[in-house]
Amino acid sequence: KRIDYSLIKGGGGLASQQVFTSSGTWTKPTGINLIKVYVTGGGGGGGWSGNTGNYSGGGGGAGGTAIEIIDASSVSSVSVTVASSASGGTQQDYPGHGGTSSFGSYCSATGGIRGNYGGGLGSQATGGVGSGGDINLKGGDGQGGSEVNANNTAGIGGDSFWSGGGCGAHNADGLPGTNGSGGGGGQNGSGEKDGGQGGAGIVVVEEYK
Q1: Considering only CA atoms, which of 206, 209, 163 is closest in space to residue 67?
Q2: Could you write out the DSSP letters of every residue in 102-129?
Q3: Taking all residues of the chain, what is their mean pLDDT, rounded to a whole number?
Q4: CA–CA dist 9, 31 (Å, integer)
Q5: Beta strand extents in the chain (DSSP E only)
Q6: pTM for the complete prediction?
Q7: C-alpha to C-alpha distance for 142 and 205, rounded to whole angstroms
Q8: What percentage of the chain's residues is helix, strand, coil (to nearest 5)?
Q9: Which whole number is the average pLDDT over 99-116?
């Protein structure tokens, strides 16, 4: 859709920025007429290694991202929802799916799907998708694990718009994702290993005069 850039009075350009790493409320500063919003969902958690030797968990999918330019001349505040971190997989529990982030009713982005545990079958760790934005991006898919190679490395989490996914280690817990990327899987070289947490979502608001 077409945006009327004449709303940027006097050619002031970018004046300020607000970054949300948890849910809250965006309040418009004085003199702001136009905003550009980036909304990223949470990353899925990485999969547990499984309790069989040399199995490795899969990485979680990354959250999607929506990018939208909004006429803020008649807006005073907007509710912001930021997806929290998704848990990594353990022997006791499956990893968590990434949650949805949103900027009011303007745009939103879903989270990534969790990684599978070592040797487990299930849905693929696909990335989330942005919606309602001028640009809607899909998060990266998580890399699958393995059950066949004694020297393998666990699956890597999917990349988000902002950050690379958590690494899948050899004979270690998976590393966490950041800024909406997926957590890495754990690999059972000499004992059961946990998957990494999925990265929490993020919302960035650029403010223009």
Answers
A1: 206
A2: EETTTEEEPPPPPPPPTT---S-----B
A3: 90
A4: 9
A5: 14-20, 24-27, 34-40, 65-71, 77-81, 101-103, 107-109, 130-131, 135-137, 202-208
A6: 0.91
A7: 27
A8: 5, 25, 70
A9: 97
